[in-house]
Design brief:
single chain, 103 residues, mainly alpha, flat
Length: 103
């Protein structure tokens, strides 16, 4: 149970930070929210990313099959990461409205 709480918190903080830095550098508020499903596929699959370019048909079908078979705990942890990217977008928008031009 402790590992679940720590994992949820860790994924939230990591993806909040990554999205925040990416938003600051590229000035695209919701970019990380669109990239996040690709990152999820990279986390869930069990093969090299090069396979997506060598043999895309079987690579994507196997990746989606593995994605369908993840547990509720994994969905909760990965969902916390996605919520972190969304919260980061709202924080960036709030900071821009408050007058912080570097964001």
């Amino acid at each position: 149970m402790i590992q679940l709480v720590v994992s949820i918190l860790l994924f939230f903080v990591i993806f909040f930070g990554l999205a925040f830095i990416l938003n600051m550098l590229l000035r695209r508020t919701w970019l990380m929210a669109f990239i996040y499903p690709i990152i999820i596929l990279m986390i869930v699959d069990d093969f090299s990313t090069v396979e997506y370019f060598k043999n895309p048909g079987s690579a994507f079908s196997e990746a989606f099959a593995r994605l369908i078979n993840i547990t509720v705990v994994d969905i909760t942890i990965l969902g916390a990461g996605f919520i972190g990217t969304i919260v980061s977008g709202f924080v960036i928008r709030f900071l821009r409205k408050s007058g912080y031009q570097m964001f």
